[in-house]
Amino acid sequence: MIDSANSDVAECGAYWATAGSVAKGLYVDLADTCCRGNVSQRTGVAGALVDLARTDEHRDAALQLLPQYFSDPDESVSNKAAHIFHRNSELLALPVGPSLALEFANSQAFHRDPSDLLMPLNRYTGSLLPFAEVMTAVVTAAAGPLASLIGDIQTRHAMVSRALPDVLLRLYQEADGAGNTVIRNVCLDAWDRLLESQVVSLDTLIAIDS
Questions:
Q1: Any alpha helices (H) in the chain, and if so which ranges?
Q2: For the chain, how big is the Rg over CA atoms in Å?
Q3: Residue 158 pLDDT
């Protein structure tokens, strides 16, 4: 199956080989081949790991393997891996959430579509304080290499100009309420960088703070 000329069949075979390897210790050699295999095989591996991360029993093993696919050279593979927060939004509330989000924020998958992380963070109702370092990485990318793309409403990066200010303001307000001056100052510095790079406007900041 994994060697099928049909990409869908090869992807399906890699998915089940990975699931069997992680969950049951089966097909280990096949799964290892797929991890380093062609695009269809790697896509299947990433999809299986995203699904396995939804289970308490297999989450740790799946998340040890998944981050390598965040920066896979093929967009279809990294896109599949990027489903991790959409399909498993509860991960953000777990101890592993901030570190996994940071790996994602520093990856090619985030650069290709920042909304894969920012939209789940925007919907997240828990404390954002553990995500301060994540937001620093997000702002660094948004105010730097992604700035020109964020200004183009024809790209999926345009979502950043709406979601990022909301998340950053919530983080600032939470830090201010907790008396955490370090994170509060991080947020203020982040606003300066976003305004300077014209990723957000002063009017936007005033609007969301009103």
A1: 7-24, 28-35, 39-52, 59-65, 75-81, 84-87, 97-105, 108-112, 115-123, 132-143, 147-150, 160-178, 181-196, 202-209
A2: 19
A3: 67
Average pLDDT along the chain: 90
* CA diameter of the chain: 59
Domain that holds residue 23: 1-81
Residues 159-187, mean pLDDT to the nearest whole number: 91
Residues 76 and 125 grouped into a single domain: no
- At 24, which amino acid appears? K
As a whole number of Å, the end-to-end CA separation of the chain is 57
Per-residue pLDDT at 156 exceeds 80: no
Q: pLDDT digit string (tens) for 118-151?
A: 999 999 999 999 999 999 999 999 998 887 777 6
Long-range contacts from 170-178, C-beta under 8 angstroms, 24+ separation: 170/128, 171/128, 171/129, 171/131, 171/132, 171/135, 174/127, 174/128, 174/129, 175/129, 175/132, 178/129
How many structural domains does the chain have? Answer: 2
Q: Report the predicted TM-score, pTM, of the whole model to 2 decimal places.
A: 0.89
- What DSSP state is assigned to residue 25? S
Q: Are residues 139 and 199 in the same domain?
A: yes
| 183, two tokens | 């994170």
